[in-house]
Amino acid sequence: MSKRFAVLVIILALTVASALVLSYTEFAKPAKELKPIGLFYIENSYFGNLTAKSPEAVTAIVWDYRGLDTIYESAVFFLAIVGGLSIFRLEPPQPAGKEAKGLTRISRTGTKIIALLIISVSASIALHGHLTPGGGFQGGSTLAVAPLLLIPVFSVTRLVSAGITSKRLVIARSAAMTCIGLTALLPVLKGLELTSNLSFYPAEIGGELISGSLFFYNIFEYLAVGSGFTAVFLYLSTFEETYRREIEKEVGT
Amino acid sequence: MSEDVFTWSLILMMLFTNTLLSIYGIVYRRSLTKKLIALTILSDTANLVFILIGFRFIQPAVPPVLTELSLENLEYLKQHAVDPLPQALVLTGIVISMAVNALIAFGIIQAYRITGSTDAKVVVKHFSEGVKGE
Questions:
Q1: What is the pTM of this model?
Q2: Mutation target vs A (from B6, B7, B9, B17; most A CBs, 10 A cutoff)
């Protein structure tokens, strides 16, 4: 144990010493100026000619200026989750496990209130993604925390019998991904480019700023990420015996 | 030599050490779970390098968000905001690395169920014997 500690101290000392050498040679100077491309995005995200009508420059880049990148990245995310779920494949219908009761009434009531709070906060993160820091990914990840909390408190069988099955979640995820694709494709029907934003979608609806397609992308990505992660959590918290039985059926003991 | 330059160099060297340690973890650790943990550290370090490229070493450095829709605020942002482009790229990178990590974790859990071990050598031996047997 002390040998490991000594190695760590040596590594730390070497790091600090090399940082001292590096700063004496003034090889790496901290950046104080904005790079021209960063300046372009800040100038144009709300004002300017190539505007996305979004006060949030990061969301404007993610879904407008580099929107096609993000759509393919969502596809990678979708495929990774589908791949994970196909490794954990289960024969439908899922065999009914032990009926679990969950924790006490106090913790169940408290968790209900907290889960409601988490869902409303995540919706606010996602729906204000074009105005404040946040967006579909962040909101969706926050949304998935609610079922993660509900699973240990109410038990996974309660959740499944309440209708939150992994099959439905995967369907919801696929539907949301289809909606993202449609949002990107719709301008093509009018003869515009793929993932066009303000030339097709309105910047405001009823006086509320929605920044064109950014709002729709954020909503659908929110649903896709939230349901995808919830499906992952459901699969991870299914009873271990169920999987063992499934493996024994395929591989043999 | 100013304090700014030293802080900057220290952060850079710390990130470099972090990268080396995580590569050591990926290559030399035999447990697949520890390999995965080292991989997440590596991807987080890479993301931090990206964020650092876009950072401005000034006081105050603010996020690139217009808090009110006025041209004065835009001028203030030009003076003080950090670069939004690396942040957008890192947002993409985080999501992809999270998805890939989840996929790897699923694979490791399934390998543990089948072989009863997360040791890389045991797992590889088990599966290669299965291939030879057939």
A1: 0.86
A2: B9
pLDDT band at B104 (very low <50, low <70, confident <90, very high): very high
Q: Is the ipTM of this complex over 0.85?
A: no
Q: Give residue limits of the domains in chain A.
A: 56-251
Q: What is the set of domains in chain B, with CATH numbers?
A: 3-133 (1.10.287.3510)
Cβ neighbors of A22 (< 8 A, separation 6 or more) are A28, B9, B12, B13
Instruction: Quote the CA–CA distance of B7 and A240 in Å, as a whole number.
Output: 49
Distance CA A215, CA A208 (A): 11
Most B CBs within 10 Å, among A9, A14, A22, to test the B interface: A22
Where residue A243 falls among pLDDT bands split at 50, 70, 90? confident
Q: What is the mean pLDDT of chain A?
A: 86
pLDDT mean over A203-228: 88
B74·A66 Cβ contact <8 A: no
| Token output for A26 | 């003034």
- d(CA A197, CA A70) in angstroms, rounded, equals 14
For residue A20, the distance in angstroms to the closest alpha carbon of chain B comes to 7
Q: Please report, to the nearest 10 degrees, the dihedral formed by the alpha carbons of residues B79, B83, B85, B91 taken in order.
A: -130
**Hey, are the CB atoms on B6 and A29 less than 8 Å from each other?**
no
Query: Is pLDDT at A26 greater than 80 in this prediction?
Result: no
Distance from CA of B65 to the nearest CA of A (A): 5
